[in-house]
């Protein structure tokens, strides 16, 4: 399945299944808008909404002049999109949609090269 993330020149972020791709246009099936929305406790989370809520046919053709870039979305985003907009229920364990990280061997805390850990001795 060819599901991609798309950034339009208008600033909109979409996720969609590409059904046709030429040098000057891209046909999108069941496009969904991606955005940050608050969860039930006010924390930010990712949300998806139908990009064509009033269309009888859920396909659009977008000129490549209107596409800033395309990318491969995280597998969790693909699974959520496939289930909600394509009716395909993936067989994966439930959980947060997070990018792949390298965990420290002795813990499950993701490593980040930009963060320097400190100990109580460092604080003094």
- CATH class term of the domain at 3-86: Mainly Beta
Shape call: globular
Strand content: 35-45%
Give the oligomeric state. Answer: single chain
Which residues sit in consecutive blocks of at least 5 with pLDDT less than 50?
A: 104-109, 116-120
What is the rounded distance between the termini?
55 Å
Mean pLDDT: 80
Which range best describes the helical content: under 10%, 10-25%, 25-40%, 40-55%, 55-70% or over 70%?
10-25%
Q: Judging by the overall fold, what is the CATH architecture of the domain at 3-86?
A: Roll
Structural class: mainly beta
Query: What's the gyration radius in Å?
Result: 19 Å
Listing every helix as H and every strand as E from the N terminus to the C terminus, the arrangement reads: EEEEEEHH
CATH fold label of the domain at 3-86? SH3 type barrels
The main β sheet shows up as: 6 strands, antiparallel
Q: Number of helical segments?
A: 2
Strand tally: 6
Structural write-up:
The chain has 124 residues and is mainly beta. The chain has a domain at 3-86: SH3 type barrels. The chain contains two helices and six strands. The protein has helices spanning 75-86, 120-123, and strands at 3-8, 13-21, 25-38, 44-50, 59-63, 67-71.
Task: Write a brief caption for the model.
The chain has helices spanning 75-86, 120-123; strands at residues 3-8, 13-21, 25-38, 44-50, 59-63, 67-71. With 124 residues, it is mainly beta. It has a domain at 3-86: SH3 type barrels (Roll), CATH 2.30.30.
